[in-house]
Structure formats: structure tokens, C-alpha cells
Amino acid sequence: xxxxxxxxxxxxxxxxxxxxxxxxxxxxxxxxxxxxxxxxxxxxxxxxxxxxxxxxxxxxxxxxxxxxxxxxxxxxxxxxxxxxxxxxxxxxxxxxxxxxxxxxxxxxxxxxxxxxxxxxxxxxxxxxxxxxxxxxxxxxxxxxxxxxxxxxxxxxxxxxxxxxxxxxxxxxxxxxxxxxxxxxxxxxxxxxxxxxxxxxxxxxxxxxxxxxxxxxxxxxxxxxxxxxxxxxxxxxxxxxxxxxxxxxxxxxxxxxxxxxxxxxxxxxxxxxxxxxxxxxxxxxxxxxxxxxxxxxxxxxxxxxxxxxxxxxxxxxxxxxxxxxxxxxxxxxxxxxxxxxxxxxxxxxxxxxxxxxxxxxxxxxxxxxxxxxxxxxxxxxxxxxxxxxxxxxxxxxx
Length: 397
Ligand SMILES: *[C@@H]1O[C@H](CO)[C@@H](O)[C@H](O)[C@H]1NC(C)=O
Ligand SMILES: *[C@@H]1O[C@H](CO)[C@@H](O)[C@H](O)[C@H]1NC(C)=O
Ligand SMILES: *[C@@H]1O[C@H](CO)[C@@H](O)[C@H](O)[C@H]1NC(C)=O
Ligand SMILES: *[C@@H]1O[C@H](CO)[C@@H](O)[C@H](O)[C@H]1NC(C)=O
Ligand SMILES: *[C@@H]1O[C@H](CO)[C@@H](O)[C@H](O)[C@H]1NC(C)=O
Prior knowledge:
Keywords: Cell membrane, Glycoprotein, GPI-anchor, Lipoprotein, Membrane, Proteoglycan, Repeat, Signal. InterPro entries: FAS1_dom_sf, FAS1_domain, Plant_FLA. It is found in: Cell membrane. The chain is α+β, with helices and mostly antiparallel strands. It has helices spanning 3-19, 21-24, 28-33, 39-47, 50-56, 67-74, 80-88, 98-102, 114-117, 176-179, 189-195, 199-208, 210-216, 229-240, 244-252, 262-267, 343-350, 363-396, and strands at residues 60-64, 91-92, 108-112, 127-133, 137-142, 151-160, 164-169, 222-227, 255-256, 270-272, 285-290, 293-297, 302-312, 315-320. The strands form two sheets. The chain has a seven-stranded mixed beta sheet with strand order 2-1-7-6-5-4-3. A seven-stranded mixed beta sheet has the order 9-8-14-13-12-11-10. A hairpin with a 3-residue loop joins strand 6 (151-160) and strand 7 (164-169). The longest helix is centred in the last third of the chain and has 34 residues, at 363-396. The model is unreliable at 1-23 and 339-397 (pLDDT under 50). The structure holds 2-acetamido-2-deoxy-beta-D-glucopyranose (5 copies).
């Protein structure tokens, strides 16, 4: 390799290395994995889905509890939803490194926790009081604990200024509000969609009964791609032509039974099964990102993700610009040939009455995609190397 080229590619790698989001993000699970005394706390951060919430935030302090402190909390036998509230009180949405903790302006502050920030807490509960006390101690207490600061700073585990600080405190912060019994959050999927420009899709889910299948997957993880109202309205004539069972399959085709954040979709390009997948009826599609843009390719059409309606693990809802047409129900698009609108395609079209389905597909788009194929592959390989580098460095750290 000529020296210029190799130094060029080195700088490309370094650029990708430092600017790839995969590298910037902290990962609380990985951070705590190096501290076996905190394995229970780490396990419950994952189980309550708080780990994902922590990783998503930029400026955060985790008040970590060691296995002994966790076992006294677990002895209370709180439900997983209540446990989530208690643990979210231990995640401060501000950065407190050791130095800042010992030098609090006026010796005392009250700071917002994730329990407060997610709207689960009423009034002032959800705030944590941090006070410097004599002998160089730092005391912590929930503001709704009658002024009692029941925990103290023990040690710092990790500080990455000003992104994430993980410090050990002596025991669980007492808070009647956080420990109050909580029912499973009642997420109204169709109501959320309706408020965000996907009412037509939500109405179809309700009318067809497909809504129930979506809701059954809420706890375990669910990703939904909602075509916007204008898209659904334009599609209605074709929708009405489907049998009841086909309608349900088409709607279920818009959900995948796992949580996939945008970042995960970008790094997990490839075939995805859907809620409609049933043995030989594959009902799958391919996720492929093109730079920042994420495409869903069904072989009949290619839809784009337009935005996020809601992202709160285990549920994520995206808006898409086309109805996803499964090849099990609609005619596959003819392979993009250099000659546009060839007679071959016309002939293929004539074979099936459903053949007019791909009319809302843009053939020019497909051709462009194919031409970019090689470039994208290279991009993909670069990303793989970058991720590998990141992982390597993370492991090394
Ligand atoms: C964080 O690290 C854990 C353990 O190394 C890994 O299983 C998980 O996928 C990582 N999460 C993200 C978002 O990278
Ligand atoms: C924190 O709690 C201490 C002890 O109850 C109290 O004196 C102090 O005023 C509180 N600080 C804030 C900022 O509320
Ligand atoms: C902290 O987060 C910011 C914003 O994502 C990033 O630019 C910076 O590199 C991060 N710092 C460290 C030390 O990871
Ligand atoms: C969910 O919201 C819809 C409106 O989209 C409403 O008709 C329905 O009654 C709500 N369901 C529950 C269980 O609250
Ligand atoms: C609906 O199906 C009929 C009969 O198969 C066909 O003639 C018609 O073009 C279809 N309409 C649409 C909008 O697909």
C-alpha cells in the first residue's frame, strides 16, 4: 500500500473511531461488569430496562449499590415495576464526580433523579438531597424522607467527565414514594400512535384485532413501524381488497418482537422476522442503512424511517413513509434492470392480479440503491472494523 494511501486510510479509521456513535456511548452494563461486588445491581439495571435509559443519556450519575445493599432491598420483595422506581431514584440526571461532591456550593443541593425526570414521581419526591457533612463525608437522602440523609458516599467506581459518573453509596435511599406499589405501566399503543400522526394505522390495528398481538409483545420488547396517515389513506383501496386474514398479516408485518433502537437498527443490518412470521410464511424484510438513513426493504418496496414517535425500552415506535408490502401478499418488484420499464416487467406484471401493488414504489430509487450497493458494502465493512476497534478498546479499558 502506498504510504500516502495507508496514512489516509489510517486517518479514516481514526476519524471513524473517534466519531462513531458506537464509541461515544457509555455502557453501564459493561462498566459495572468489572466490579463483581455490584453484580446484583447491574443485573437489576438490565432487568428493569434502566441500563438502556442510562446509556442513552449524556450527563448522568449512577449511585451504585453493592450486593449487600441490594440484598436488603430485594428482601422487601417489591414488584419489578416498583424496583424500577427505587433504582431510578439512584440515577441522577446531572454529573457528580468525587470532586464536585465534596465541593457543593453552600454545602447542600437537591438534584433531580431519573425517577423524577420520567414523570413517575409526584411533587418533590424524586429529588435527591446531597449534603457535605463534617469529617469530609457526603450524605445522600431522598427529599421525601423527612430530611433524613440515610446513605453516605463510599467510593468512586468510574468517572468519565462530564458524561457518566458511577459512585458507590452505603445503602438504598429510603423513599416511601419510590417504594409505593406500582402497577405495570399501562401503555396505550394505539393512543400513542394516534397522537403522533399515525391514527389511521392505529384504527386499522383496532378494527382488525391485530392490536392484541402487538400488545402481547409489549413486555418482552416491541418495535413498530407506523405508516403515516397520508400513506395509509392512499393505500386504503388496496387494503380493502385483502381478505381479513391477509389484513392481519399485513398489519403484523409492521411489528418486530424485539426492541431495536435506531442505533441497533443501524448496526444490525440484515433480515428481520416480524410479528407476521409463521413458519414457512416468512414475512421478513431487510434493514439496510444508507448513511444516516435507515431503509426497510421488502423486495416489493423500500420504505424509509422518517422519525421516532416513542423510544422507551422495551417499546420503540417509528414513522415510515410507505406501507410495508410483504412479498407473501404482493408481487415482487422486478429486479432493477438498466432499461427502465422493460416489457419483461410488463409481462411479469400481467401474471398476477395483485401485480399493481408496487405502483407506489419508485423504480428510480431501486436502481440508485443497486448502484450504491458496492459503496455501501464498503461502508459496512468500515463500520464493522470500527465497531471491532471500539469493542477491542472497550475490552482493553
Ligand atoms: C453493553 O454491554 C453489554 C455487556 O458487554 C452488552 O451485552 C450490551 O449489548 C451492550 N449494550 C450496548 C447498547 O452496546
Ligand atoms: C438537605 O437536607 C438537610 C438535612 O435535612 C437540610 O438541612 C438541607 O437544607 C437540605 N438541602 C436542600 C438543598 O434541600
Ligand atoms: C462524552 O460525550 C460527548 C458527547 O457524546 C462526547 O463528545 C465525548 O467524547 C464523551 N467523552 C468521553 C470521555 O467519552
Ligand atoms: C386506548 O386508546 C384508544 C384511542 O386510541 C381508546 O379508544 C381505548 O379505549 C384506549 N384503551 C385503553 C385500554 O385505555
Ligand atoms: C381489487 O381486486 C380486483 C379484483 O381482483 C381488481 O380488479 C382491482 O383492480 C383491485 N383494486 C385495487 C385497488 O387493487
